[in-house]
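Hey team,

Filing this mostly as a record. A colleague (T.K.) asked me to run one chain through the structure pipeline before their review meeting, and I want the input and output archived in the tracker in case anyone asks later how it was produced. No errors, nothing strange. Just documentation.

Input sequence:
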Amino acid sequence: MSSIFPALTAQEWRDLRWLASAPDLMELTPPCPLLLPPPESAPSFVAPATRPPQRVGHYVERLVWHWLAITPGLSEIEQGIVIRDGTRTVGELDFLFRHEGRLHHLEVALKFYLHSPVPGQESSAGLSHFPGPNATDNFEKKRDKLLLHQLPLGRTTFPEVAASHALVKGLVFYRRGETAPSALPASMNPGHLRGTWIRSTEIDRLLDESWARDCQGRVMEKPHWLSGSTAASGEEIHPMESLHHVLRAHFAERDRPVLLSLGREGEAHESERLIVVPPDWPAHHG
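Output structure:
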């Protein structure tokens, strides 16, 4: 069996399992015909660690390529199909593949958004209540790009495409104690994964508030922003006092957001995903 399936590292397997099991962030298209082998099959595929892409998006695409390759019934898998109009590049398709003889187009993304409502205004691509850590991005922009450009590009370039799919996973981060939004943007899955966000000027809350001070965890380094286990093999787990020190040192030198995976002492699973952003976010554009 190991000669049939692509080799995966232990970290890649955890991240791929997360990618497969996490609820979709966007509900846009018919389900994509992807199935994973059962969890007990994982040890057969584990390989020595190799250097992954540093960009989270490229890493996710690599995982999805593995996913497609181990899915029975798929063939002719192509990745990164550049579309040109003469000498001008007009776009790129993430994946094409065949399933039961039919051609499928698949776009993939891992996205994180922070709920930051604008009083008196409707959420839209121009003034979103769900911007990303880099606030030039937001939920509606990504949704509209998929619906209006990326998915139609596959169908117009390859008329044989029988089905177009968007696989968008991720989290939306909310302020603890805030009122839940009365309405979500069109196509946002109400069952999306949720986390918490704070500004770097608020990190002392992590030592003062019971929900945080009783936690331990780790800084999630790119590109491994997917699976959130706090006790996976080889990970260094820190008490909150140490994480607080790491955050202080980080924001004293730079203003990039920091993603934390937190869990209760003695528990292996993640209980909270926390992102810490610069003081001027969302005016800060990364």
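Quick notes for T.K.: The first strand starts at residue 74 and ends at 85. The two ends are 44 Å apart (CA to CA).
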